[in-house]
Amino acid sequence: MTITIYDVAREAKVSMATVSRVVNGNPNVKPATRERVNEVIKRLNYRPNAVARGLASKKTTTVGVIIPDISNIYYSELARGLEDIATMYKYQTIISNSDNDPVKENEIFNNLLSKQVDGIIFLGGTLSADTLAMIQSTSVPVVVSGTNDGDESLPAVNIDYAQASTEIIERLLEQGVKRFAFVGGGYSEKARQDVQAGIERVLKEHNLALDPAAVYKGNEQYLDGEKAFNALKDTKPEAILCISDEQAIGIVHAAQDAGIKIPEELQIISFNNTRLVQMVRPKLSSVMQPLYDIGAVGMRLLTKYMNEEDIEDKNVILPYKIDYRGTTK
Amino acid sequence: MTITIYDVAREAKVSMATVSRVVNGNPNVKPATRERVNEVIKRLNYRPNAVARGLASKKTTTVGVIIPDISNIYYSELARGLEDIATMYKYQTIISNSDNDPVKENEIFNNLLSKQVDGIIFLGGTLSADTLAMIQSTSVPVVVSGTNDGDESLPAVNIDYAQASTEIIERLLEQGVKRFAFVGGGYSEKARQDVQAGIERVLKEHNLALDPAAVYKGNEQYLDGEKAFNALKDTKPEAILCISDEQAIGIVHAAQDAGIKIPEELQIISFNNTRLVQMVRPKLSSVMQPLYDIGAVGMRLLTKYMNEEDIEDKNVILPYKIDYRGTTK
DNA sequence: CTGAAAGCGCTAACAG
DNA sequence: CTGTTAGCGCTTTCAG
């Protein structure tokens, strides 16, 4: 029924070892033999069984991808970059949603390891102590993209979040902005902390402080933007920094609905830089993260680990740009 | 090094068959034995090798998902529904981007089959003759969600696109709208045709016809909305039906930038119903497709095929609703 | 350049 | 309830 390497060998009058060599591009096969084998492969429509191959070779050419929410554009954009590179290096990807739930995340790691993936790339979530311990005890390489583990022990690809927020705040201060608000949370607590740290650093240099009431944590979706706006409006912010674009758009609309002029009375800037930023009026100002590249470079880094190549730099910091569009002055 | 079922067996002083039974929840094990085995499993931190298991059992509890573009919200929303059901039934998913390229699509099918997936779910793309032939010649079940193959031979989950467009056109005609335009294309040619057929049917009943110059095909992204608007504006449409939300939003903005009042002078309605519809002002009117369910039901259908359950209905038509929001009168 | 043979780690009859 | 025994389909020494 399903035809195997053995069928091909018999039909081509060679041993299965030779068929294996042909299939794997081993040069030690006489051209004539190779041709004959290839002819039989085509004729019989032979398709190598990757599972058997994986068992025998202890390599599956498969990498696992852990993502908090695939329907979040930020992550699907990272996934896109990473997939392209994976394909380029002939790896398949198993993408799993963790829902940012530590238990699910742990299960996913377990599944992935039991599937014998050659590597894992982690795009955001919690990375509980349990999971971290599991990672430490396995020899399967793990790379983190677009977020960070708590102690930065894992190889990672990121931008400098703190630096970006620092820059933004400095500019706003020059404009005379006094009251800031910060909205973040959700999938990457570490990035959130970095951004907040950056804000507080500059503010402190100017003998100012971030009002705790002006810090909103919560989900990162559109409707959470409304909630955030309502929660913050009593602090009368003149500028809001918001991690998520989608949520920032919610804030823009909630503010507009409340009769607040953007950017004249309220400036808004986001960090995710998905293609949503151009889909609002005024267009959303944001930190231009190279999303595709964060995914792509992460996967490239992982391939280096999987092939045991030299790693120059296990922590890659990619450049960012700040694009001041319509929601800032 | 990596510990196997054999190590557990030796340590627990049972045969590997017994360990296998415990791991697989086979009831034919004395509780005391089961407990002892479980203790050893935990102590040794044994993790079954899914690859070996797959080879021996000829089942991988993995399904392949083929998607034209994971960063397209429409598809990532389907993927979300499908993933949840897959997880519920203990299947893992391998998601691959086809980029709507027949060659890549074919390769993906090949890879998936060589990985011995238990089933495949197809979310949109081309389904070339080659690929269709490959599907026919394999015993691995394939289900299509949110689109259709040309001859509807494969099990599929959809809404009635033609009916939806018919309804929309009838309403617009009642309002006295005379000049229609249609924008579609991209990932599901079949859905596009269905929508267009629906439009033309009603128009014909009213002795009208769709101006060929008022039909625009192309990509489905925001910037393509601008292009579409420019290409169509000479036909002076009073209403535009557009498959993609993202593209529809592009049209809305392009029209607004041209000084056209929406919905007074131009009505716009889309079909994808992603959460983008609420992220524009005015809010986008659209056909409310049950995206999550289209994915979820597709996966459920696939599990039935994989378990060889009875199938009542290989073509599932899910209900839709039309939500007339701000971009229609 | 080619073949023989020994597994990879597990499941699944088959006995008992 | 438990153990023995064949494989699953392929890669990989090791000889020659």
UniProtKB/TrEMBL annotation, chains A, B:
It holds the Pfam family LacI. SMART domains: HTH_LACI. GO terms for molecular function: DNA-binding transcription factor activity; transcription cis-regulatory region binding. Residues 3-57 form the HTH lacI-type domain. The keyword Transit peptide does not apply. The keyword Cytoplasm does not apply. InterPro entries: CcpA, HTH_LacI, LacI/GalR-like_sensor, Lambda_DNA-bd_dom_sf, Peripla_BP_I. Keywords: Activator, DNA-binding, Repressor, Transcription, Transcription regulation. Signal peptide: none annotated. Global transcriptional regulator of carbon catabolite repression (CCR) and carbon catabolite activation (CCA), which ensures optimal energy usage under diverse conditions. This is Catabolite control protein A. It comes from Macrococcus hajekii.
